[in-house]
Design brief:
The complex is a heterodimer of chains A (329) and B (309). Chain A is of the alpha/beta class. Chain A has a domain at 249-329. Helix content of chain A is 32%, strand content 24%. Chain A has helices at residues 46-53, 81-87, 99-102, 109-120, 125-138, 144-147, 157-169, 187-204, 215-221, 239-244, 249-256, 297-301, and strands at residues 2-15, 18-31, 35-39, 62-65, 68-71, 74-75, 92-95, 175-179, 207-212, 224-229, 232-238, 307-309, 312-317. In chain A, the strands form 2 sheets. Chain A has an 8-stranded mixed β-sheet, sandwiched between helices. In chain A, strands 1, 2, 4, 5 and 6 form a 5-stranded antiparallel β-sheet that branches. In chain A, a hairpin with a 2-residue loop joins strand 1 and strand 2. The longest helix of chain A is centred in the middle third of the chain and has 18 residues, at 187-204. Chain B is 76% helix and 0% strand. Chain B is flat and about 85 Å long. Chain B is mostly helical. The chains are: A alpha/beta (329), B mainly alpha (309). Chain A binds chain B through residues 54, 56, 85-90, 93-94, 96, 98, 101-107, 115-116, 119-120, 151, 153, 164, 167, and chain B through 202-204, 206-214, 217, 221-222, 225-226, 299-302.
């Protein structure tokens, strides 16, 4: 059974410019122990999807609708706010993008790290401190005992992200959502943090949802990948297959626009023409159609749905023309 | 930290000295002297004798030297109007009155202001927010002598809950302190609302919610400390303003405080009383600003005071 199963999730926002369809019918299937990547450009709805699952989207202005959000067999939609709160930071934890701003500058890290244990596990301060020390050692903070009373600004960026991870892991969550955990860090630190995440996953059997816009990072880290565009999943595949034979034109364009070391420096940098669509006024047909090189007339009027390809449940694509030249009926 | 404290205290002294020096020459530049209209027909010789008694016949710069020497030794000089009292005695009597009124008004202002500000921020763009901020704008724009009058009509004459005026029982302080506090409460309310809104949109507040904390926990433990920083920086000037601004309130409620003495002394050209009150007021102002800077270091661990020095 899947650890997390999301069916047809919609998160819309009422704004002065109209209804923003930030997430528009997303379905995810996350098996226990796997690392699942969600890839897409800024504003494609990656983060909002996960914030919605965690119950962190305020309503209003948010409007949330889904056929199911099953976590450990329990439908999160049927839970009260209080029950959902008890899951957050406990069974499902989140690591955020920017460790500079995501830690509270006014509180010591000891204060911030022990908090989840005090509220979810009912531990006392001494027990919690022991657990935190052990975890800080595990995420690679040297001499943790002496750093407990330090404030976030006394740590470097990489160290702060390690603290963030320790904070997410204190209650041994079964699902860890990492929202661009390495984006704000420089490349060498990125590698260290990814290494650490892998080790943690191996040792604790944590399931990871990994949100990123960096295809290179996703390729090396994820078992399977969902590609999001304008609030929808456009393609879903095992990582190897996705990189070998992308089916959706958007995925293909993304892969083409990754700069490569073996490419001639004089060659022009490939970009995707145009810009992401306005989420308050999506095109009638396929959202990617205005930027697509392969579009046919049907793409302008009809919206493609996510369908299985090659008879494989984990190989899905939403496009009328897939890139092997076949036109789907 | 120690270096910072010594450094700042040194500048407090320099500032107070500069303010009092300027005041010294300014009050002397004003026409008239303390003995001009005392009794309509005070004789020339008597006036001259009085002036000699208070060294007013010496060159101005020499008088300044004498006064400064007295100041350094803690002697504020004599009063030229209330001839049986020294300036220190006069201020000594009025100071505790003004301070108690100010402290209680400040307490009201902070309590009312912070509570309403935080509620407004948490219920942003609701009926509560608009209502409370409407009151805050009223509080800022209505002069406190009008507020005081309304409070007297309601509290004293309609409800009969408070005594009208004077300074006898602890009851007497409530109404004037409340009238004095309202404009400050209004400003603090707006400052804490803005501060709170800013903090609530921070990433670390989202982190706190993601950890599964309750809203009240997030607000009190994670947000409040940062949200009150703008309020704290306002407290120093506010307290000085409350002390000096209590003049009208002191007059309406007939309270024997510093403000009353200051204005009387200025009208009567009671030079040393004016100077004495100015020294007290400016010391207070500088000192409270100094305390605010210190409190920053305790509220925000990122502020390192040594660097500022």
């Amino acid at each position: 059974m899947a650890l997390l199963e999301v069916q047809n999730l919609k998160t819309h926002f009422h704004t002065q410019d109209g209804l923003v369809r930030a997430v528009d019918g997303v379905s995810l299937n996350v098996e226990a122990g796997k690392t699942v990547g969600i890839v897409g450009e800024s504003g494609s709805g990656k983060s909002v999807t996960n914030m919605t699952i965690l119950g962190l989207v305020p309503t209003p202005p948010g409007i949330i609708d889904a056929d199911a959000i099953l976590f450990e067999g329990q439908d999160l939609r049927s839970l009260s706010k209080e029950q959902l709160r008890k899951l957050r930071g406990n069974r499902i934890a989140m690591v955020f993008q920017d460790p500079m701003t995501s830690l509270n500058p006014f509180l010591t890290i000891e204060d911030q790290l022990t908090e989840p244990l005090l509220i979810h596990k009912g531990q006392n301060m001494d027990q919690a401190r022991q657990r935190v020390l052990q975890l800080l050692k595990e995420v690679g903070i040297p001499d943790p005992q002496s750093r407990l009373k330090d404030y976030p600004h006394q740590f470097s960026g990489g160290m702060r992200q390690r603290v963030m991870m320790a904070m997410a892991l204190v209650c041994e969550p079964s699902l860890l959502i990492c929202d661009e955990p390495t984006t704000a860090l420089d490349v060498t630190i990125q590698a260290q943090i990814l290494e650490l995440l892998k080790r943690i996953q191996k040792e604790h059997g944590t399931t990871i949802i990994f949100i990123t816009h960096d295809l290179g990072v996703a390729a090396g880290f994820c078992d399977e990948i969902y590609v999001m565009y304008a609030g929808r999943i456009v393609e879903h595949a095992q990582t190897d297959e996705l990189f070998k034979t992308p089916l959706h034109p958007y995925t293909a364009s993304l892969l083409k626009s990754v700069p490569r070391l073996d490419q001639e420096a004089s060659e022009a940098f490939v970009t995707i023409q145009g810009s992401p669509p306005d989420l308050t006024a999506l095109p009638a047909g396929c959202s990617f159609q205005p930027r697509c090189d392969h579009a046919i007339s049907r793409c302008e009027t009809e919206r493609p749905t996510l369908e299985e390809r090659e008879g494989n449940h984990s190989r899905q694509c939403s496009c009328f023309v897939d890139l092997r030249g076949e036109v789907k009926s | 930290m120690f270096k910072f404290i010594v450094f700042r205290l040194f500048w407090v002294v320099v500032t107070v000295w500069a303010v009092s020096t300027i005041t010294f020459f300014m009050v002397r530049a004003a026409p008239g002297d303390p003995f001009m209209n005392e009794v309509r027909n005070l004789k020339e010789e008597v006036q001259a004798a009085r002036k000699r008694e208070y060294n007013l016949d010496l060159p101005l710069i020499q008088q300044y030297g004498l006064w400064l020497k007295g100041m350094v030794q803690g002697d504020f000089g004599p009063s030229m109007k209330s001839r049986d009292k020294t300036v220190a005695q006069i201020i000594g009597q009025a100071f505790p009155v003004s301070i108690s009124l100010g402290v209680i008004a400040m307490f009201f202002a902070v309590m009312i202001g912070m509570t309403t500000g935080v509620i407004s921020a948490l219920r942003q763009n609701t009926f509560w927010d608009y209502g409370l901020m409407g009151f805050a704008v009223l509080g800022i724009s209505i002069p406190n002598f009008i507020l005081a009058t309304i409070l007297i009509i309601v509290g004293v004459f309609l409800l009969g809950w408070f005594p009208l005026s004077g300074w006898e029982t602890p009851y007497h302080v409530l109404l004037p302190a409340f009238a004095l506090s309202l404009p400050f409460a209004a400003r603090i309310s707006r400052l804490s609302r803005v501060g709170m809104l800013e903090i609530l949109s921070e990433d670390f507040v989202r982190t706190a919610y993601a950890k599964g904390l309750k809203e009240k926990h997030v607000v009190i433990k994670h947000a409040l400390k940062g949200a009150i920083l703008p309020v704290v920086s306002y407290l120093g000037p506010a307290f000085a303003l409350i002390l000096t601004g209590s003049l009208v309130i002191e007059k309406i409620f007939d309270i024997p405080g510093l403000g009353k003495i200051f204005v009387l002394a200025a009208i009567n050209r009671d030079y040393y009383v004016v100077l004495g009150t100015v020294v007290v007021f400016s010391s207070l102002l500088c000192f409270f600003n100094f305390l605010v800077d210190l409190s920053y270091a305790f509220l925000d661990p990122r502020v390192k005071l040594e660097e500022a020095a």
